[in-house]
Amino acid sequence: MKLIFILFGFLISFQSKSQEGHNYIEGDTLVITNSEFVLDPFQFGLKPMLLLKKQINSIDTSIYINRHVDNQFDTLFKLKIGEDQFEVFVNASETFLSKGIVYSKKFPVHHEIMIGINKDDFAKKLHLDFNKKLPNYFRIRDLEFLTWIDFHFEDNELVEISFCAISD
Question: Which superkingdom, per the lineage (predicted)?
Answer without folding.
Answer: Bacteria
